[in-house]
Amino acid sequence: MEAREQGNERYTRLVRGCFRSGGYIFAGKAGDIARERGISRIARLASNENPSPPSPGAIALGCAALKEANRYPDESMELLLQRLRQTYGSYQFVTGVGMDGVIETLIRILVNPGDKVAVATPTFSFYGIAARAQSAKVFSVQRKEDYSVDPAVFIDAAQDAKISFLCSPNNPTGTVTPPGVIDEILAGIDGILFLDNAYVEFSDIDYLPLMNTYENLVIGRTMSKAYALAGARIGYAFVPAWVLPYYRRASTPFTLNSVSAQAAIGALGDSEAMKRYVTHVRRWRERLLCECAFTAAPSDANFIMVDVSPWTGDAMVRELALRGIIVRSCASFPGLPDHFIRVSIGDEWENDLFLKEIRAIREADTDRSSKGPDLP
To answer: What is the per-residue pLDDT across 87-114, written as a single tens digit (0 to 9) for each?
Structure first.
């Protein structure tokens, strides 16, 4: 046993420093707490998922493609690209395994070891993880107190960056950066701006006209949220034409599988299902913002961020799990204090249960406070 441990230590020393600790923090362990309590029906409000199944069109095409899964997919994904052009217009697109895959490939194309990558924070942690994996130097650009982006500060920080990342609507704050600010940033930097639009379907904002003006803009999107295909892992991006040959060279062969691609085609062809979910999100988002017993930040996404002070985010996650509700602590988002949670817009019963239990927690806090004991 001792010899084996010494052997393991010998080889684990070979692991790169950027992977010795850290990594993406998944939301889900709170579900174990709920199951230990014997709660069988758990409200899953942690991962910004669509609570409805994929559209019938997505299921039909995905199942049909599974019959031919013994063959490699079309490496060009031409049918999916055609469907994207039919949906959005004559833009250039690339695809990947989730938007994460698109991000990794772009970083692989652009970033040499030691190059600078700028990230508007607090935000999705994977930008920094992927950049560090390429041995980049990641520079965090702190948002303002209201989580908006100061274009002058961002431009100054991103001036010598190969690629910069900005999420809008932002995860986890829900904040939108106006197109005018994006325009100013694009005009002021020499590198590439990756604009993450994972939640843009839930907003009225439109950045696509900027693609006609700037050659340093990439807009990333996903089928995971509005189109209910999180498990199929389908990402795509609007890119300037000059990116295409380099993207093909840097991509993993046969990156997107044929079943996922066909499911995406089916989902894009069934826009009514997506629109119904967007309507559901907007209606419930307003209710949660108005009725949440703790202060919630305005959001243009399919989630809200809630300040649960004096609780910590982790403590509130545990408390809600005991009540059968899984939400996301924001403690893993760099640049945020440790008293926020992120709550997805779920099914009707899930949203109702969250409002009921968060109100009960607040009332219990108030009652304890009036009696004198310390709060959690």
So the answer is: 999 999 999 999 999 999 999 999 999 9
Q: Do residue 356 and residue 219 come from a single domain?
A: no
Both 279 and 353 in a single domain?
Answer: yes
Last residue of a domain, one of 243, 269, 295: 269
Distance CA 250, CA 361 (A): 50
Query: Alpha-carbon Rg of the chain, whole angstroms?
Result: 22
Where residue 207 falls among pLDDT bands split at 50, 70, 90?
Answer: very high
Residue 283 sits in the same domain as residue 342: yes
Residue 79 to residue 254: CA distance in whole angstroms: 14
* CATH assignment at residue 34: 3.90.1150.10
| Same domain flag for 315 and 251 | no
The domain of 28 spans 24-52+272-364
Same domain, 156 and 185: yes
Examine residue 223 and state whether it is found in any structural domain, yes or no.
yes
Q: Are residues 48 and 60 in the same domain?
A: no
Mean of per-residue pLDDT scores for the chain = 92
For the domain that residue 130 is a member of, what is the CATH number?
3.40.640.10
Q: What is the pLDDT of residues 45-71, one digit of tens each?
A: 999 999 999 999 999 999 999 999 999
DSSP-derived pairing of the beta strands 328-329 and 340-344:
antiparallel
